[in-house]
Write the structure tokens for this entry.
Amino acid sequence: MANQDIDVGRRKAMKLAIAGAAAIPVASLIGGGVAYSQDLPHVAEDDPAAVGLKYMHDATQAPRADKAGSAAADQFCHNCQFIATDSGEWRGCALFPGKAVNENGWCSAWAPKA
Ligand code: SF4
């Protein structure tokens, strides 16, 4: 009986250890992304990925069109689901890893925040 109690205790400890180890990378990604955006280099409009997505720092100069129930004039990086959740003029974007986009920019992958 005592051995069964020890086994149950070990199993619980192992589950907690695994869950804790799995949570560390997720927490560091979330926290790291928020603190890191302002330090990222700005994506260049002539970057091949930016050209491919028609990214522009100034959304009013971009070829926007009504999309997903949102008027073209209302589409900006700051209200796109792919922008980092921190604040600031330049922020990370899931589509441009390691680079920052202008909060008033736009690209053809724009999608409204949920
Ligand atoms: S995916 Fe969204 S946040 Fe990223 S550049 Fe395009 S419009 Fe801006």
The mean pLDDT is 80. The chain has two helices and two strands.
